[in-house]
Here is the input.
Amino acid sequence: MALEIGIVGLPSSGKTTLFRALTRAETHGSGKEHVGMAQIPDERLEQVAETVGARKVTPAAVRVVDVPGTGPQLLGNLRQVDLILAVLDGWSGTRSAEADKEELVLELLAADRDHVQRRLERVAKQAKSGDATLRTEVANLEQLAAHLENLQAVSELGGDVEIPAELELLTIKPLMEIVNGPEGIDLKLEAELAELSDEEAAAFREGESALGTVVRALVEELDLITFFTAGDKETRAWTLRKGESALDAAETIHSDIARGFIRAEVIRWDDLVAAGSHSDARRQGLERVEGKTYEVQDGDVLNIRFNV
Here is the structure.
């Protein structure tokens, strides 16, 4: 499953413009949820692909969801995202970015408050059976509900209250801000440039695009690394959380590969490029064999052997 980013913003903030710029996907009408993929730029991928003569090159990507407005029900569609991207109005002159952020945080807190209250009502009925685990959960949910009722951040609760992971609270997810305007990013311009080819768009820029900077910031915020699979049919970039294993990498590629995992053949991307081919890298002793628990490093090229 790709990592998922949720975009939130008040009306006319530019959040759907950001969605179009990131994903290059079409949006049809207002009031609809939009879903697309945003590619993660990585200069190493093309070098690896050229080295192995890949006929297809596939960048890593994150899934992006743009919900139509705010409110508890709509924001609830973002409970499974890994990070929330808040678009703040810095261009209209009628609102300030700081005021936008404050209102969005209150909307997220209100959505969590309603969500916790619904779960509390359900679990409280079940706890009448006398089940000790359910009664403990009710006590935790009551503290959490009281905290959210005062529109206070969940992070201020401390470690005394256990929060069920399945609640997927919005206000404990990473929140990253994008100001649409002179103090941040001109999203309208970026959306227009996204409709051009990379070569055409580069003529209007100096250095990396603003959106490229945003995506890199997302990668850093989520503590991601990139690994590669490199073959002549397809060379592809993938993401993992820092600290995850070769078995996690196999699962990211395909569940069958993880199920039949035998070993991972590992080489650094720059060693492969310098050697010129997998076989030459192997002859030079640059490739090594690792097991399931190997911690994948940023820039590793993996060839996972498996049998199912």
The CA atoms of residues 5 and 64 lie 5 Å apart. The first strand starts at residue 4 and ends at 9. The radius of gyration is 23 Å.
